[in-house]
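JOB MANIFEST
job_type = single_chain_structure
chain_count = 1
residues = 178
[input]
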Amino acid sequence: MTKKQKNKLYKDFDGQRDGEVVLFVFRRHMIAMRKGFYMLVVPFALSAVPPLVWSDYLELFLLPIGGLLLGALLFSYHFIMWYFTVYIVTDQRIRQVTQKGFFGKDVIELRLSKVQNISYNIPGLSGEMFKYGTIVIQTFVGDLVIHNVEHPDKIYNKLQDAVNNTLENQGMHEENIT
């Protein structure tokens, strides 16, 4: 598969520059939605208690359905926050789009040429079992910390390759100017 064919696998995004090539897109691990899973289970579990205690009242058996609907609504909020938070790596920059509420979003961009160091951390047994970790991208200005990244070792290698390619291309561009 050629580079052009691979890039067609990824969609264009808002704010993409002319000639900018998307290398890869990633998002946080599903473990980042654990609060959402709790919000799904807790209302259902709490609403299931009254029918178990007072089983003579058949109307109470509707409570778990209401608890499940409430839990699904709360879960959908966390799912939307997870799904619409993405990290786009192009041949020029890293773009972090973070969903804030239903209507807001934060966008952070970091040029690959400004990256000083990239490191990753896998937090113990749970990180090893579920294959998630934290990636830290260091620059002169500060750090971009990405928590709960799925397969941080693979993302780390791809980021390193993107930064190295950018620096090599920048070096060739400077040689052509002189």
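[summary]
Confidence is low (pLDDT under 50) at residues 1-9.
The chain is about 45% helix and 30% strand.
exit_status = 0
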